[in-house]
Every structure is written in structure tokens, then in C-alpha cells.
């Protein structure tokens, strides 16, 4: 539920309610601060029980693509790169947490 909020609802709010100059600021803030930080948190959470939650980082990246394409530019290939980076951040934090707890 938190992933839906961060990856879909927040970009929707930025697109719908922020004026154009503030929207650019908040969009950049989402892309470079909020989404990567949340991807790390989701991956860390998934690292607590990898056998059941291994799909969290991938679901997070897919939700980002859905939200970005719905509210910004449908089919823009640049968002694939961001989704791949968020996936790598989530997977790395999941594996780091798993490694620390071994």
C-alpha cells in the first residue's frame, strides 16, 4: 500500500495540483530523492524475509513505471532507466540486509 502511495499517488498529486514551476521542482525531488530512498526502504524491508517478499523491489519499479506513464509522458523510454535504477537500489538493499542478518 505504501508503494502505491509513493509511486502512484504522489506523482498524481504533483501533476494535478502543483503549478508548473513548483511541479518541476517536486518532480525532480520525487525522481532523485523520494523514489530512490523509498526503494531502499522497501528493499530493506523485503530483506527481512526474502523467501516471501522477494518481489517487492520489482513491484516497486513496476508501480513507478505505471505512475510515471499515467501522469507524465506515456511510453517515455527515459522512465525505464529510472525504474531499472530503483530496482537495483531495492535489490541491493534487500541483499545487504540479508547478508547482515546471516
List the helices and strands and how they pair.
Layout (H helix, E strand, L loop, with lengths): L1 H16 L2 H27 L3 H4 L2 H16 L6 H23 L2
Multimeric state of these chains? single chain
Based on CA inertia axes, which overall geometry fits? elongated
The main β sheet shows up as: none
- Total helical segments: 5
Structural class: mainly alpha
Cα Rg: 14 Å
Distance between the termini: 28 Å
Number of strands: 0
Strand fraction equals under 5%
What does the average pLDDT come to? 92
Topology order in helix (H) and strand (E) letters: HHHHH
Which stretches of 5+ consecutive residues score pLDDT under 50?
Answer: none
What portion of residues is helical?
A: over 70%
Structural notes for this entry:
- The chain has five helices and no strands.
- It is an all-alpha fold and 102 residues long.
- The termini are far apart.
Features of this protein?
102 residues, mainly alpha
Q: Can I get a quick summary?
A:
With 102 residues, the protein is mostly helical.
